[in-house]
Amino acid sequence: MAKKFVYAFKEGNAKMRNLLGGKGANLAEMTRLGLPVPQGFTVTTEACNQYYKDDRQINDSIKAEIMKALEKLEKVSGKSFGNPENPLLVSVRSGARASMPGMMDTILNLGLNDETVVGLAKLTENERFAYDSYRRFIQMFSDVVMEIPKHKFEEAIDALKTKKGVKLDIELDANDMKKLVETFKSIYKKNKKEDFPQDNRVQLIEAVKAVFRSWDNPRANVYRRMNDIPSIWGTAVNVQMMVFGNMGVTSGTGVAFSRNPSTGENVLYGEYLLNAQGEDVVAGIRTPEDISKLAEDNKEAFDKLNAIAKKLEKHYRDMQDMEFTIERGKLYMLQTRNGKRTAQAAIKVACDLVKEGLLSEQQALLSIDPKQLDALLHPQFDKDALKKAKVVATGLAASPGAATGKVVFTAERAKELAAKKEKVVLVRLETSPEDIEGMAASQGILTARGGMTSHAAVVARGMGTCCVSGSSEVKFTNGVCTIAGKTVKEGDAISLDGSTGNIYLENIKTVDADTESGDFGTIMAWTNKYKALSVRTNADNPRDAATAVKFGAEGVGLCRTEHMFFEADRILAVREMIVAKTVEDRKKALKKLEPMQKSDFVGIYKAMGELPVTIRFLDPPLHEFLPHTEAEIKVLAKELKITPAELSATVDSLHEFNPMLGHRGCRLAVTYPEIAEMQTRAVIGAAIEIAKKDGKLVKPEIMIPLVGDVKELKYVKNVVCETADKMIKDSGLDIHYKVGTMIEIPRAALLSDEIAKEAEFFSFGTNDLTQMTYGFSRDDAGKFLADYYDKKIFEQDPFAKVDQNGVGKLIKMACENGRSVRPDIKLGICGEHGGDPSSIEFCHNTGLTYVSCSPFRVPIARLAAAQANIKNPRKNK
Amino acid sequence: MAKKFVYAFKEGNAKMRNLLGGKGANLAEMTRLGLPVPQGFTVTTEACNQYYKDDRQINDSIKAEIMKALEKLEKVSGKSFGNPENPLLVSVRSGARASMPGMMDTILNLGLNDETVVGLAKLTENERFAYDSYRRFIQMFSDVVMEIPKHKFEEAIDALKTKKGVKLDIELDANDMKKLVETFKSIYKKNKKEDFPQDNRVQLIEAVKAVFRSWDNPRANVYRRMNDIPSIWGTAVNVQMMVFGNMGVTSGTGVAFSRNPSTGENVLYGEYLLNAQGEDVVAGIRTPEDISKLAEDNKEAFDKLNAIAKKLEKHYRDMQDMEFTIERGKLYMLQTRNGKRTAQAAIKVACDLVKEGLLSEQQALLSIDPKQLDALLHPQFDKDALKKAKVVATGLAASPGAATGKVVFTAERAKELAAKKEKVVLVRLETSPEDIEGMAASQGILTARGGMTSHAAVVARGMGTCCVSGSSEVKFTNGVCTIAGKTVKEGDAISLDGSTGNIYLENIKTVDADTESGDFGTIMAWTNKYKALSVRTNADNPRDAATAVKFGAEGVGLCRTEHMFFEADRILAVREMIVAKTVEDRKKALKKLEPMQKSDFVGIYKAMGELPVTIRFLDPPLHEFLPHTEAEIKVLAKELKITPAELSATVDSLHEFNPMLGHRGCRLAVTYPEIAEMQTRAVIGAAIEIAKKDGKLVKPEIMIPLVGDVKELKYVKNVVCETADKMIKDSGLDIHYKVGTMIEIPRAALLSDEIAKEAEFFSFGTNDLTQMTYGFSRDDAGKFLADYYDKKIFEQDPFAKVDQNGVGKLIKMACENGRSVRPDIKLGICGEHGGDPSSIEFCHNTGLTYVSCSPFRVPIARLAAAQANIKNPRKNK
After folding, report:
1. How many CA atoms lie within 13 A of B89 on its CB side?
2. Which residues are B762's β-sheet partners?
3. Fewer Cβ in 10 A, N or C end of chain B?
């Protein structure tokens, strides 16, 4: 049988979402439920795909199906398309599988032409209404279907109003509307070199095409990329009989939520406008009324709406977002869908629906978008204060939360002012590792350069500090900072919204995060009940570790030891170590660092209680620690008692063409085993100290980075074990530790069976693994990835979501090989992907033991892990 | 049964080389053949491995086996160890599976002590001989086994000679020798804090240990790495009864080759010394006699040696390199092995042995080391002239051949002087793409910086030009060049040996390569008969293409289009293209380049006849083409009619953190499809021109580099095909072309099944694939790879030999996946590995269609390909 491309509403149901789109499926479902839905039909998503296959044409057989469906609709409605006696008017709306802003939304009143408008006027006994509808239709059709700029029509309205000396559209009468219709048709003709189409069937087919076409417009593509929607899904088109909210004061239109989408409170919520058509509610020209007032205006309709809301909520087992129209007193439902809600509402609704018996705990967990939780964990702007604030520029929403304070331009000043209890926002061209302390002292960070994975963004997310990065409107010229052209000086007021990327040059009140509320606690408790993956945290210091524990982290999956090296009191010793000319000099410098590293680990062990702590040994290329400008070199040379020329030569000799692919990771430990020795002494020494002072036995997991060959790992492991075993033996304590490796080089994944012989655990470093598997560095990829998205070569940012096809293949291979050699091998992930819900689902399905993410992503990861296990339960859970 | 660790010579044979080492197996074989071999036994290579497993100790059971073998030897010889009446003396020599300079070689006269020396004197009635033997033994044992510096003993001899007022050792008498024995023993005691061991069994065990130990010394490790010998092979130890060449004028010792190892001529070749022990022949104190003189001194021994040589040659079916000793007129054979020979000798011997019916053609091919052929393809120094020349410095032997000429320091000067028919050698800190023309104009290239895969080295090998790179003795200070401390000015005489890395500050006569000789032609004809792999060439210009065709290349496997961009007449247009701000400006610049590119391709097509030509589209990051110094920028800005500041900004904006992982390869074509369009027009336009002018239909293969996702390839392929198909249609010609891709990114290999849907061929870019699979760049790896070799983490340079475990896994995966989707897919390799024999064997075994290498490696690749197919015949050959 040939594929069916068009379904009448009564032929469909809610399960047919993939075929009919969300809107179409729900209209069908509401029809099935006997709710008052104006009838119509849906052109399927497959028809959309067919349209693209047919070179952006609707083929004849689909056209024929549409016409047949139209005929049936004529029969059901008793009206007829293009018939002046009793014209059938329809709306045409897009409706993808998932809600998709950015696509063509709606064309109303389709079916009008010079003849049917006369009929409509007669039927409704309202000429103004009829011609107003017609001019709206011409305008929408021209704009949306024919891409004639909207402003041309608006200018015509304005000209007419000026001429008549009136201000509001409503002051225009029927004759004015007639005139506008004529003017609009001539605008159409001027632009399209043909008359406005009078054949309603042509109008319909063009409108359907326009919906299909809009599936591929740039805004839709961006939205899809941001929301993981594959372009192959396509959109459906809903053709629905018009009902009119603008037929006088007994008519109206509105939107309603079955619960308050902002707080989750269980009460009908929404707004409506009397005597208005759809777009008027959102257009903001007239202020809509609160839905509660409908009880006064039309009690029957209000009660019916309330009852329908409850019925739909019960039916869909979720809070509903509905559109309705009242035509001459009678309520019609135009749409229902699961309502978008704030994070706070999401968890309240989920908990309430469980209490009400509508959802199981598992279903409740599935109803919450993990990414949304972020908003609950960071300070936010006070909503009222925000309404009054003015966005002066934007950047990338690099790390969520809201920040307000005084501008500072250096990490030093940030620290100085923060020490005086001032709230500061650090504004930089870009940040570098030396800025870490200043970043930690700031409320927020703003950079002119750098993407979502720039140093500033990554570090800020790790700290849970608000960050807006890569704002091209922030400029530094001759030492003067301007934002959107305005000169900004130290101490000026600034606010940042890290969740939107907005920048304000004023102070805005913020409200603190509330992570202690009962519902949040309930949800988090459920995640532990249902997830199989452990969730660990990436934490480089006791503060982050403590934050993560508060959020439920079950261990440290990645403690980057190098971040500790940048602190002011140790960077000198680090630099001494690097420029050392002999092993002895290097050991001398390392000896200075050892007690500091040890105290770091003591702090982290304390924060983590008995939870496991994975410590990664020194990873970055050494030159990252060195000064680069002449002035800096001069200062350091003096401190190190060598000549600037000598120091310069050392800095130069450490230069690398491709630092990413250079002398770093375990390669450092191979060249300088004394570094690994020192780090081992610090790790084990701290464990011994804790054991002696607190009587607690911690189990450090030492992680060797950037391994590509088992012999590399073995070499470094030998250094570690010899050092550690001797210390433990001398201490007389029963301390255990593990040695494992990062899998972050393709070769390590390919040879993971060999590597597993020496590694007690694998932790996937998916940042580097992604870079090397794709062969591009995230620092450089920004230059061309935009083109890749535009040209639909990539639909996803592989640094945000694990590339399951390529990188994922290596991960799977390594998991299987690793387990085949060492069945109890621990498998984790500690790249940025460890906090991304879809990547977490992949990790769950691949059988990893844990994911590790920044402290503020821990609750998100817990929820995502629970969802993954609910969808695909692991046997051994 | 327990493993046997010691074999008497008569228990072994030539096939037991892995167990007994080369020397031991051949001594056993000669024993089996009934040749006069002093008897003895071999401690196996497995005993060596056991020694390392036992923490560098010889365990008791192996010791016991050695003692038992010794007892049997006593019986056979009728002498007895440590018995003053009739002492058994032995030599102890190492003997690995492959010949291994760098390891401990020989200890002679073991078995002597204060008592047996007296017996030996009595038995031989020659006290001086006995004590000379004893003092030699003490010296060798101390030096080699106990690591007491040799010079301490030499100084004692010198002191004695000075005291006695004599010049030669031979002038010392028996009493002097006795005195030396005492002095040597005291030197031993002073250094080792114990007496010289008198127990001959202790001496023996210590000597065996010393051989095992020497397997792991740095020189041996370096040699192994250079020659692909795994450390797990271990070495055997041969213990053999001493015979004495120094028992007067009827005794002697020598080395002989069954044919001339320098020319291959079929005549006994070698030299000997009367009244001498082994080391004297090579020590150079006395000048040895030519072997032909032995016929006069001892006709019987000479005839016997000649007969044995023929017998062994026939037996081993290869030219033999033998050691012999004549003791009181009687000939003894101490060693035989296949003789090392020059390339010229290798091919002559191989051809002669086939003519003589001793070898089949296949066996003859297998007898030649492919790497050796290189020497036949490049000019060499005249041997006599070379003997008088003085090496003043050395560098890396980066590209073989000999060069002599005048020093120039810039590419411009090289071109200018070469235009005047001067021979020049380009001396640079390092080279860059702009130097290409100057490099081509030079006889040789010397650089102060850069390894075997630096720009200079890679380009020179491609051109077949001699290159010595990375010589730390070449310095540029304040614009003055010094080599090994000597100031060198333009025009000074210099010679380079690119096969050894030697640098001379004088002119040395060179002789041209002879590739036309009959034997070379015969061998090359045989390769075509027996190989399955095609051999193509990497050629970027008609000259290289023509050279390669002369060497038998069967197509171009890689034509790098970017090298053409650096030429003086086009770099400006290239730079215009890069700094273009609009597509139109870029197209304008590309339009200038198109005819030049087209003429390049016309030239290459002409050189290649009807052979396939694979053209790789633009690959390197654009900033490589831009100037970087202020002065250069100023000049270019003027030419481009923009301000230096504008140009600087463009250069800066093109800066990349990791250029290797940046905006290059097909990523350029995605961003700037107009570049791919221009290149397509040049490729196809050239084919049309050739077709119209010469009536010849070439089949260009367009290769898209750096693909990581099939959609990338598809995007660029669409641009190529649209452009090409239109041109071909317009031309009315029946021109065919292919579009394929490099597999050089791990993800491409992982997803090769998807990519094969769009790619008509795969060419493995093993340089980049190796870099990305290992996660290190070859430009940076130099800094740490030395440590990797020292610590035995790597035994091979993965940029020289394909890493079969890791990178090879990806290659195999891609071959299998590619074929599963497209059974007739062409599979090639175009990285540097394409010219490496062991990698070629891997390519053959993996089922590749072709390898591609620089023109001068083509004969090597042909031979290696033939050898691979002889060892492992491909069914479809």
Report:
1. 22
2. B741, B827
3. N
Residues of B acting as catalytic residues: 455, 830
In 3D space, the residue among B755, B799, B750 whose CA is nearest the CA of residue B774 turns out to be B799
Per DSSP, helices labelled H in B320-428 are 343-355, 361-366, 374-377, 383-388, 411-419
Angle CA(A11)–CA(A12)–CA(A13) in degrees, nearest 5? Answer: 140
- Widest distance between CA atoms in chain B: 102
Shortest CA gap A715–chain B (Å):
8
Contacts of A537 (CB under 8 A, 6+ apart): A544, A545, A548, A551, A553, A555, A556, A557, A852, A853, A854, A855, A858
With beta carbons less than 8 A apart as the criterion, state whether B669 and B581 touch.
no
3-state secondary structure of A831: coil
When CB atoms are compared, the residue of A659, A660, A805 closest to B751 is A805
How would you classify the pairing of strands B424-428 and B402-408? Answer: parallel
Edge-to-edge, what's the strand order for the sheet holding B320-327?
Answer: B289-290, B269-274, B252-257, B320-327, B330-338
* Distance of alpha carbon B50 from the chain centroid: 31
Distance CA B606, CA B545 (A): 9
- Closest residue by Cα to residue A132 from A160, A96, A103: A160
Compare CB distances from A779 to B657, B776, B787 and report the shortest one's residue: B657
| Distance from C-alpha of B594 to C-alpha of B562, rounded to nearest angstrom | 13
- Residue A282: pLDDT over 70: no
Query: What DSSP string describes B759-770?
Result: -SEEEE-HHHHH
Over residues B290-301, mean pLDDT: 93
CB burial string B163-194: b at 16+ within 10 A, e below: eeeeeeeeebeeebbbbbbebbbebbeeeeee
| Parallel/antiparallel/unpaired status of strands B330-338 and B269-274 | unpaired
| H helix or E strand, kind and range, residue B284 | none
Nearest chain B residue (CA) to A806:
B747
Residues 6+ apart with CB under 8 A from A605: A613, A686, A687, A690, A696, A698, A700
Strand order of the β-sheet with A474-477 is A474-477, A480-483, A486-488
pLDDT digits (tens, 9 = 90+) for A444-494: 999 998 777 678 887 888 777 899 998 989 999 888 999 999 999 999 999
According to the 3-state scheme, what is the secondary structure of A452-471?
CCCHHHHHHHHHCCEEEECC
Residues of chain A positioned with their CB less than 8 A from the CB of B754: 805
Hey, what are B719's tokens? Answer: 């641009």
B546-577 residue pLDDT tens:
999 999 999 999 999 987 888 777 888 888 89
What's the N-to-C CA distance of chain A in angstroms?
Answer: 45
Long-range pairs for B414-423: beta carbons < 8 A, 24 or more residues apart: B414/B438, B414/B439, B414/B441, B414/B442, B415/B441, B417/B441, B418/B442
Nearest of A298, A278, A274, A303 to residue A288 by alpha carbon: A274
pLDDT for A816 equals 97
Distance from CA of B232 to the nearest CA of A (A): 14
How many Å apart are CA B765 and CA B749, to the nearest integer? Answer: 11
Position B780 scores a pLDDT of: 86
Three-class DSSP category at B106:
strand
Decide if A697 contacts A691 (C-beta within 8 A). Answer: yes
* pLDDT tens by residue, A12-28: 999 999 999 999 999 99
Single out the residue of A23, A113, A761 nearest to residue A321, CA to CA.
Answer: A23
Residue B280 pLDDT exceeds 70: no
Contacts of A663 in chain B (CB under 8 A): 780, 783-784
The CA distance from B701 to A347, in Å, is 59
According to DSSP, the β-strands at A556-560 and A466-469 are: unpaired
Residues of A in contact with B779 (CB under 8 A): 656-658
Asked if B658 lies within 8 A of A659 by C-beta distance, the reply is yes
